[in-house]
Amino acid sequence: QVLLVESGGGLVQAGGSLNLSCTASGNVFSITDMGWYRQAPENQRELVATISSRGSTNYGNTCWGRCTISRDNVKNTIDLQMSGLKPEDTNVYYCKAVTAQNKGWTLYKNDYWGQGTQVTVSS
Q1: Among 10, 57, 89, 122, whose CB has the most other CB atoms within 10 angstroms?
Q2: Region 67-88: what's the mean pLDDT?
Q3: Does pLDDT of 15 surpass 90?
Q4: 29 by DSSP, 3-state: which?
Q5: Could you give the CA distance from residue 4 to residue 24 in angstroms, rounded to a whole number?
Q6: Residue 81 CA, distance from chain mean position
């Protein structure tokens, strides 16, 4: 089991910046990729950014060029630095961790989600 706790959301004016943090605890040694997602229509979650355990990053269209994701494997945290925020960035942002564990000949993967942190951008 992995527990994810997010922090750093809040209210910011358009054009401002926010830093979201996510701390993992529990079976952290099994975590591979981590990332940030936000709520999308029809109960989906859209990609904001992900980062592998080796630091490879991937950004979605939602925050391209305005966000930077980073990871500290010692502290088991990821951060998302967002700048140039727009009212349309208002959303609940969720931290996600993917775990992978070998049991015998089988690789088991699981997704864990944080509770979400609200980001509100005023115009």
Answers
A1: 89
A2: 96
A3: yes
A4: helix
A5: 5
A6: 11
